[in-house]
Amino acid sequence: MTGKREGITPKQKKKIWACAHASGMSELYLRDIVEGISGDYSIRELTKKDAKKVIEILEGKGCLPVPRDNSNVIALATPGQLILIERLKEESAWTDEHLMNFILKKFKRNNLRKLRRGEAGVVIKVLNEALLKKKEIA
Q: What angle do CA 29, 31, 116 make, to 5 degrees?
């Protein structure tokens, strides 16, 4: 074996972007998923195998990896919570920057996927309140 890894195919890149777009997923969240699989935000740097895993997650057939050492597992936000946060963010007209600034200030986290389940619940509650205020104003 030469040790050379097989890179992502153009077809896989297209499929990843199409799935993300069809679900209304932000680029930021997509890159969080990619980082969870490969350790790198870059979609272009994915291997063919990792790209397949990302596509499975986007199609709802796979799940994000869990740390192997279960003794220190922290209950992170579920994919459902993260998707709900993305939808509420869009509906309440928050920008990615606004959301990330809130998460950084409130929880000292710089990545949606690093939110714990309880923290994600707080973000969902805040976004719901922002959405209600937006609807009251309109």
A: 50
Mapping DSSP onto H, E and C, the string for 81-115 reads HHHHHHHHHHHCCCCHHHHHHHHHHHHCCCCHHHC
Under a CB-based contact definition with an 8 Å cutoff, are residues 53 and 62 in contact? yes
Q: Model confidence over 105-135: pLDDT tens digits?
A: 998 988 888 888 788 888 988 998 898 888 8
Contact 82, 113 (CB under 8 A): yes
The H-or-E segment that residue 30 falls in is helix 27-38
Query: Are the C-beta atoms of 84 and 78 separated by less than 8 Å?
Result: no
Distance of alpha carbon 138 from alpha carbon 123, whole angstroms: 23
The pTM (predicted TM-score) of the whole model is: 0.50
